[in-house]
Amino acid sequence: MLPARVDIVEVGPRDGLQNEPGTIALADKLALIHALADAGLTRIEAGAFVNPKWVPQMADSEAVFAGIERTLGVRYSALTPNRKGFERAQAAGADEVAIFAAASEAFSEKNLNCSIAESLDRFAEVARAAREHAIPLRGYISCVLGCPYSGEVEPTLCLDIAQELLAMGCYEISLGDTIGVGTAAHTERLLEHLLPHIHADKLAVHMHDTYGQGLTNIYRALQMGIAVVDSSVAGLGGCPYAKGASGNVATEDVLYLLNGLGIEHGADLHKVMHAGARICERLNKSNNSRAAKALLSKP
């Protein structure tokens, strides 16, 4: 049965922009965040407090949070890989923080420079700090439907990691098909392993659209009771470890799907569409949202 309402977690300002070449002006980042909030999106990932050597586009996250004109009812979150990142996020005024593990040892070593077990040890410290300061903590798991280095990923490992993250204090686990290789059958198989042990309201999906399967995977997840979807305005983003990865599923396309299904979400598709068009113009890149391109081309 499909949910009556779906929450959208807009990751464009962080996951979408972090892989862009060149420098993105602070004013453009803030304009995007403000436009997304004005469009009715209430969960916005605004930055990441990570080493700027590895993610230079997130080096100004303090300035981003300082410059946000906050909208009542909107939660502005940040990615925090360690205690230092958490302390920076807290000082900047992040409403929520997120930690990110991987369901592949090979990907964990490449992306986090440590094993899965070592990453969970690091995150436990962040989780303790979040509890001490009463800041909500979200968990990500990357490569849940496939790894660029080791191929297929076992759902059992995803379950183990998800349970550990929940035990630390994460209120929600976002399941990421980081390289976009999964299909509806893969999504179904993963959720069949997880849902007997973890209630659907503790899970979200974060699909990339490399092989054009993002919306199909999301639809299957919705049918199985998932009611939180991560997406990125204009389909911004991608995976630096997957050649040809086209990025996150576009928020506009998800909203178009939800509208067609009669599912409430609280966002204005046309406002999101124009926010996406503006940031793509500023980045001098094409819009990856099929719905936006179709709607914008109408007379």
TrEMBL record:
Alphabetized InterPro entries for the sequence: Aldolase_TIM (IPR013785), HMG_CoA_lyase_AS (IPR000138), HMGL (IPR043594), PYR_CT (IPR000891)
Keyword line: Lyase, Metal-binding
Domain Pyruvate carboxyltransferase as annotated: residue spans: 6-273
EC numbers for this chain: 4.1.3.4
Presence of the UniProt keyword RNA-binding in the record: no
Pfam family membership, one: HMGL-like
Catalytic activity from the UniProt record: (3S)-3-hydroxy-3-methylglutaryl-CoA = acetoacetate + acetyl-CoA
GO MF, one example: lyase activity
Pathway: Metabolic intermediate metabolism; (S)-3-hydroxy-3-methylglutaryl-CoA degradation; acetoacetate from (S)-3-hydroxy-3-methylglutaryl-CoA: step 1/1
Family: Belongs to the HMG-CoA lyase family.
Name by which UniProt lists this protein: hydroxymethylglutaryl-CoA lyase
Biological classification of the source: Bacteria, Pseudomonadati, Pseudomonadota, Gammaproteobacteria, Cellvibrionales
